[in-house]
Amino acid sequence: MATTSISRSAFYQYFEDIHQLMKELLDMLAEEIFAAAKPWIAGVGDPVALTHESLEGMVHVCYQRGPFLRAISDAATTDDRFEQDWSDFLGAFDDAACSRIEADQKQGLIARFEPRPVAFALNRLDAHTVIEAFGKHPRSKPEPVHEALVRIRISTLYGSEWVEKRSSNLVRT
Amino acid sequence: MATTSISRSAFYQYFEDIHQLMKELLDMLAEEIFAAAKPWIAGVGDPVALTHESLEGMVHVCYQRGPFLRAISDAATTDDRFEQDWSDFLGAFDDAACSRIEADQKQGLIARFEPRPVAFALNRLDAHTVIEAFGKHPRSKPEPVHEALVRIRISTLYGSEWVEKRSSNLVRT
DNA sequence: TACATATCTGACACAGTGTCAGAAAACGAC
DNA sequence: GTCGTTTTCTGACACTGTGTCAGATATGTA
User: A171, B42, B130, B160: which one has the fewest Cβ atoms less than 10 Å from its Cβ?
Assistant: First the structure.
């Protein structure tokens, strides 16, 4: 508040409390991130390419909004109510990733394993990697982060042979 | 303090401040976790088996100490000094994982990619998966978490073919 | 100008963290 | 036991962050 022109009291006329401020920021960010992740979540076509595309969008949004993302994630550790909101946000991604993995398993594209713990772990991977890499200035460069996330997700889900194939294709074109 | 028999003031005779309390807890936990992770970090032999062993130990320790781990991780988001301590702790793992990946790349066991971002991402994966899975009661079961972390790390580093091979071996024996 | 509505502010209350002088307890010598 | 010394503990205070509220100020309108 010290850096703004209005008083602390005036703030409470626009937001019920700090929790609600963070909640609205989270909702805005969630919308952007879901939109970016949509290709892999709901798209049709080569799932390896869709993974690449979704992670590219997700990394791009998080690179831009890094400090917001970090503030939101930090707030989740101090406010009991907001912790639930943050958990719901990540949980929605877990559900979506789970569904996609199950669908691809039925098509024989992904090996048969319990999807829930792997989806959970991969989502914590993405979330906390971008939070730590982009949350504080100076931020990491987005490209190496994107490449690492793509490599890990594709190796885990579709097989490591697709990682090198894809990168060599990209080099040739 | 309300749940203890001593006063708040007495606490400050044993610890300089809350930061120092968390720091000592972190140091204790770091020792346990480093010891558990040692096989893959510094061991010789089949790296796939060593990965499995290290993650088993790490998951076991974190399952037991989950609430402590979570408290420590949460403290890092509110205390500037402690944030640095936590960052150093994770950074030490990044360095160790980086070295191991580079060594295995020289031996041709791991594909040639930039090791730092992948090591960073895999460590955030492990850390925040166990924190969220084991940090709050009721805790998740450790076995599915371990299996997911093993699957992801082995697929990413040594190739996804080793995941199924290993699990089929384990079924037969 | 006068009234009504919208917006803002200072003062207060309460919780969390750290400090400090002095009280209480433990110990040792006689 | 009773001093004197050292260790340990406590209540009161100071400072910061969060939220509330009555009343002041600004804005719009007839």
Answer: A171
